[in-house]
User: Fold Aluminum-activated malate transporter from Psophocarpus tetragonolobus.
Amino acid sequence: MAGGNEVAKEVEWKIKVEDEDTLERTVFGCMWGVTAGLAFKLCKFVKNAWEMGVNDPRKFIHCLKVGIALSAVSLFYYWKPLYDGVGGNAMWAIMTVVVVFEFTAGATISKTVNRMCGTSLAGFLAIGVHWVASRAGDQWEPVIVEVCLFLLVSAATFSRFIPTIKARFDYGCMIFILTFCLVSVSGYRVDELLELAQYRMCTIIIGSILCIIVSVIICPVWAGVELFVLVTGNLDKLANSLQCCVAQYFGPEAESNDEVPDTKLLGYKCVLSSKATEESLANFGRWEPGHGRLNFCHPWRQYVKIGASMRSCASCLDALIGCINSDNQASDDMKKSMRSISMKVGSDCVSVIRELATTIRKMTKSSKVDLLVTEMNSAAQELRSSLNSCPNLVNARSHTTKPTQTETASSDDVAAKVEIPIMEIIQVVTVASLLVEMVARVESIVEAVEELSDLANFQPEISVKSKQHTVDNKISPDQQEDEEAVRTLQMV
Assistant:
């Protein structure tokens, strides 16, 4: 019996040892798997961040600019004469730099001006309320402060719902509310309120001015130029999408759908989603000083109107692409009947849109727009005439179909004979109708661009000799056009 107990204990000990080894291996394997997964995700993140910075080096430069501004404003803490001048309120300057420094110069100037105005106005009002309340006695002082706090904060909050104020001064209203609450409430317990407000105001102004200087002097990114490039680029994308769409539907049979690049065909979607960006850049552009050929009073809001006209055209193009990709496909014979005139209308629309993009990019009044618009309207009128002849085409095709029983043909047989041609032609008619509507919407873009040329005083186009430029093959045509637009704007 004793020998049996020893064997049992030995077996039990082996089982425990094996269980402990398995548990350790499992835990180690899980830890190694989690560590390897985190390391892989970190490497992937660093790679994506590096590629993003390489594609747009201005983001790297912006990081350096923020570092320079914060390093400069931190001297108020490290340099004793500056620290003695502003006291412990130097942190407000650092907070100002962190809060107001933005990617574009216009956004930075907008936030700094809003912060300085909101802080100044709220500080003066809070000091005035505190002075009046202190003269009313200890019993009425908190009541007066609370009533003024309620009224002014409520009014400032309501002003943020007004569209004109929200577009340009929303941040200033928020800073006004914050500053007034801090100064008025803290002033009830602080005796040296005027000195405290003076120090905070000085540090905020110092931080704001430093942000403006760094943002404007060191490799500035102008919101106006960004808006300028965005609008011209969207015009090119809209033209490319329309050209690919018409070529895909009415083009030769040898041209398959796979040969049409998706980036060009779906480029119009960028136009549909650019409303918020255009409005934001237009608001920031109005704060920027004159730079290059863009002066301080440049009509930035007109670019928003051009963008709205482009979105109207892009929505029509979206409906056109949806109709082309529908299940109800027309026959090749029906496409051939309207191929030439439909492709002519599409080509004329593309020519007009590209000429408008060139007009904005060069900031000159084009001498070819009127001629191109006339040709586009003439082609659209011819397409309308073709659409009016569609019922005759249907009737002609229905009469050419011989009935099986000429004398006893029922009404159902006649309806069936007419129904087949109608279903074959309905898609072509819809596509042609949308092309006619596209012409009308392109004209709205022309009107918006002409209004911009009048407001911005575009000069008449001067014929110059074309110059050939050696361009690196790595640069795409769109990037070349954007760089040319930026160089044009920077010309004095």
In short: The longest strand covers residues 364-365.
